[in-house]
Each structure stands twice: as C-alpha cells, then as structure tokens.
Amino acid sequence: MSSPHRSFSKDDKDTRERFCRKMSMQEYELIQDEKEDESCLQKYRKRCMQDMHQRLSFGPKYGYLCELQNGEQFLEAIEKERKTTTVIVHIYEDGIKGCDALNSSLTCLAAEYATVKFCKIKASDTGAGDRFSDEVLPTLLVYKGGELLSNFISVSEQFNDEFFAVDVESFLNEYGLLPERELPALGNGNTDEQDVE
C-alpha cells in the first residue's frame, strides 16, 4: 500500500543533502572563473572581429576634410592616390554664398565616408584662379584613378538656401559617387553589447 508520507531511503537523503548544502569556496571560485573566462572570450571575439573588419576594409582611411594649399598639392591629391580611391575636391573662396555650408557638409561626410578623400582648396590657390570666377563657385570635382568623373559648378544651386550634409550626401549618391556607407565601428569599448555568434 502506498502511504501519503513517503519514506526516503538513505540514498535519497544523501542526494538531497548534496543539492541543499551550501556551495564551497572552491566551487564558487570555479563558477566565477567561468564567468570571467566568458567575459574574456567575448572581448577576444570582439577584438578578432575588429581586426578582420580592418583587414577587409581595403585602402587608406581619411576621415577629415583636407585643406590643399596650392596647385601642386591639388595635383598630388588626385594623381598620387590609389586607383580605387574616390577624391572629392571642393573649390571655394571665402565670402561666396554656399561655400561655408559646403565645407561644413563635406567635413561631416568625410567622417562618415573614411575611404573617400575629401579635399578643399581656395580657387585663388589653385594656380588657375581665373578659371574659377565667383559665378562658378562653389565647385565640386570628383576624381577616381586620376580621372575626372564629375564636375559640378555652382553646386550650391542644386540645394535650398540652407543645406546640410544629408543634402550633399543625397546629391552625390544620386550620381553614384559615394561608396556604401562605412560599417559602424565594431566595438566601441562598451562591453554590454551582445556579440553575434
């Protein structure tokens, strides 16, 4: 007959005591070591992913708007660059409508498209200042492999009176002059992020 009060055998009591007892310091340290190991493993994975991303990102990185001082630097910026690198040059003068806004926009885009070389040069510093009258400024020249791909004179006329980096980005993308947007940096030091496995 079965009784509602079950009697436990000696083996059952031993098993129950093993599960109910407190954890020893040695067991606790083992569990903590496993957690630390997992954290180290996640950091290692993240670092490997960053390294792999850098190796797969071909070409030099720029990330800023470079000021060219003269015509010689202008030619070097175009001709001495890799054939796969897009070079966007803004020809401007101080006080010309749209030039400051375009410089600000290109500074933002340079940070987002680090594989594109963004440059600016004053028309008077090019050595061909007579070709760049105030009526054609601001001008954008786009080169790749030393060849001129696009030439946009009075480019600010393509935008509203007030324009921003997103407007310039859309304009350049419309003509297929910008590469795919850069991947965000893999791991910004934030260890709370979940890794993809």
From TrEMBL:
Matches recorded under SUPFAM superfamilies: Thioredoxin-like (SSF52833)
Location of this chain's protein in the cell: Cell projection, Cilium, Photoreceptor outer segment; Cytoplasm, Cytosol; Nucleus; Photoreceptor inner segment
Domain Phosducin, first and last residues per copy: 9-190
GO CC terms: cytosol; nucleus; photoreceptor inner segment; photoreceptor outer segment
Signal peptide bounds: none
Primary location class: other
Protein keywords: Cell projection, Cilium, Cytoplasm, Nucleus, Phosphoprotein, Sensory transduction, Vision
BP GO annotations: regulation of G protein-coupled receptor signaling pathway; visual perception
Family: Belongs to the phosducin family.
Protein name: Phosducin
